[in-house]
Structures are given as structure tokens and as C-alpha cells.
């Protein structure tokens, strides 16, 4: 504390002696992702800290239009509840990093769960849980495109599964690439993927075959995201599409957040389309929920 008190006026005095040319040169405002990467780097330097990968949130109450009961012994069309909780936990940690940067190889893990919390009739089961382990390489960039900072690109491998067997089993493997741009108040990203092919099932119960051969036509082949700040509010929109103009399908997700502390935000989330969860990948779903989220942007 004493060192901090002493150092403050020294720094202020040094600033006052800068040249007129330096004083006249405005400092470029830091973009959203540049600020985020600095925070990530500081956290990574602490060996006992892991960082957020995707948003971490709890929605204690959501309403979903048509929840699936495929292969679930505890749920039927008559007993499934349209009200359920949804939560997501997502972390990453570096496998290898270049010095003083966030460039390197990472392992990420995301768990998204749908819990029939209010369904006492069926003993409040977890209707569906999706798991996404992934390994990816990330590298920062340092140039502008149309006034926006091109902050980073990522390439990697993603496995997505619901951890089930038999008729409830859903899984697929993808290779993906992402581009991320941002300025002071806005963030954009583009993500595309290639599904690694699997052999066709010989029988419906074949555990070695493709659980969901048409998933790309429903869940999509690409995703675009946009986030912005409107005063204290933040909006994050995600749009997925199968890139097929003859049988066009996809989804949209809207997230509205408002800070309540330095660490937590109120979250209102809306989803419409295919792929709300893996078990629901091939039928359209609508969901709205409210809850809390760790500060993300």
C-alpha cells in the first residue's frame, strides 16, 4: 500500500513532462477483445485460475415450446413440463502459450444442461445434458478491417455429445475455424465448421454408427455472432444456418444482460430454431428464460 501511495505522484509527474507531440496524439481506445485478452493473460499467469470459455449462466426458469422426450423412461408427452431450468458451465485452460500473449493451444470444456426442476410428477429429472470438449489453437492479430480491429482467429477440433446410449445417443465431431473482430463497444465473429463423417448405422441400435446423420442440415454449418453495449445493457446475438437455400434451417439466440455487481449480470435469453439441444436438433424449438450470468464481455 505504501509503495502504491508513493508511486502515484511520481507517475503523474512523468506524464506532465511528455512532449507536445505526444500530448496531441490521442491514444486509440482499447477494443472489447483486447481488454478481454489482457484479463485472460493476467488470470492465466495465476497457476490456480481457470478462465471462461463460453458464457457461464444459470436460468432458474425457462419456458420451452416442445421439449423432447425421446427414449426417456421418466418423461412422456403427457408428463414432460414446458418449464425447466437451464444452466451452462464453460472453462478453458492453456496447453501451451507463447510468452506474454494469449497465443497458443487450449483445451476447452462446456456443459449445458436442461433440468425439469419443477416437474415433481416425474421426480425432477435432467432431461438433457450436452458436453463439448474441444482443443483449439488461438492467435491474436494486429490490424484493422473497415475500422474494426481483427483481434484473433481460432482453429480446432470439437466433440459434442449428450453422453447417452441407444435411441437417445446424439454426438458429432467437427473441425472449426473462427474469426473475431471488435471495437470499443461492438464485437463480431464468424465461425464455420466441417463435420467429420461417420459410418452409417447397420441397425437402429448399432452403437458404432452415426447417431444423427442429418444434423448439419438442422443444427447448421456456420455461425455468426454480434455483441454490443447500449449504456449499461449488453446484447449478444447468435445466428446459425445450414447454408442450404433449398431447405434453409438454423436458429437465432438473443441474450440481454444488465450488470448487478462487478461479477454478475442479469440475463434474459431467447432462442428460436433448431439445435436448442442435441436431443432436439431436428425439430424447431422456442425458449425464453431469465437468470444470472458471470460477466463475459
TrEMBL record:
<feature type="binding site" description="in dimeric form">
    <location>
        <position position="169"/>
    </location>
    <ligand>
        <name>Ca(2+)</name>
    </ligand>
</feature>
<dbReference type="InterPro" id="IPR036541">
    <property type="entry name" value="PLipase_A1_sf"/>
</dbReference>
<comment type="similarity">
    <text>Belongs to the phospholipase A1 family.</text>
</comment>
<keyword id="KW-0106">Calcium</keyword>
<comment type="subunit">
    <text>Homodimer; dimerization is reversible, and the dimeric form is the active one.</text>
</comment>
<keyword id="KW-0998">Cell outer membrane</keyword>
<dbReference type="GO" id="GO:0008970">
    <property type="term" value="F:phospholipase A1 activity"/>
</dbReference>
<keyword id="KW-0472">Membrane</keyword>
<dbReference type="GO" id="GO:0005509">
    <property type="term" value="F:calcium ion binding"/>
</dbReference>
<feature type="binding site" description="in dimeric form">
    <location>
        <position position="211"/>
    </location>
    <ligand>
        <name>Ca(2+)</name>
    </ligand>
</feature>
<dbReference type="GO" id="GO:0004623">
    <property type="term" value="F:phospholipase A2 activity"/>
</dbReference>
<keyword id="KW-0812">Transmembrane</keyword>
<protein>
    <recommendedName>
        <fullName>Phospholipase A1</fullName>
        <ecNumber>3.1.1.32</ecNumber>
        <ecNumber>3.1.1.4</ecNumber>
    </recommendedName>
</protein>
<feature type="binding site" description="in dimeric form">
    <location>
        <position position="123"/>
    </location>
    <ligand>
        <name>Ca(2+)</name>
    </ligand>
</feature>
<keyword id="KW-0442">Lipid degradation</keyword>
<feature type="active site" description="Nucleophile">
    <location>
        <position position="161"/>
    </location>
</feature>
<keyword id="KW-0378">Hydrolase</keyword>
<keyword id="KW-0732">Signal</keyword>
<dbReference type="GO" id="GO:0016042">
    <property type="term" value="P:lipid catabolic process"/>
</dbReference>
<keyword id="KW-0479">Metal-binding</keyword>
<keyword id="KW-1134">Transmembrane beta strand</keyword>
<dbReference type="Pfam" id="PF02253">
    <property type="entry name" value="PLA1"/>
</dbReference>
<dbReference type="InterPro" id="IPR003187">
    <property type="entry name" value="PLipase_A1"/>
</dbReference>
<dbReference type="GO" id="GO:0009279">
    <property type="term" value="C:cell outer membrane"/>
</dbReference>
<comment type="function">
    <text>Hydrolysis of phosphatidylcholine with phospholipase A2 (EC 3.1.1.4) and phospholipase A1 (EC 3.1.1.32) activities.</text>
</comment>
<keyword id="KW-0443">Lipid metabolism</keyword>
<feature type="active site" description="Proton acceptor">
    <location>
        <position position="159"/>
    </location>
</feature>
